[in-house]
Amino acid sequence: MTFVHHNTGEWVRPNDWSTARRYPSDAYVHEYANLSDIDNKFVRQTFEWMLEIGEIVTQCGSDVFQIRN
Q: Which residues are CB-contacts of 54 (< 8 A; sequence separation ≥ 6)?
């Protein structure tokens, strides 16, 4: 199993209501082979919760979490 954490960076909505990333360079993707490899408590607990309920993809703000087989 692979645990993938995507952070899409900070999104802003200008006056014309279009969507743009403020700092695209802030976006990143981290892949983990095991839950024990994840230092960030929030990220690890989110994956644990996903396993509990059987979810393979979820999003929280600019964070996207995916479990791959």
A: none
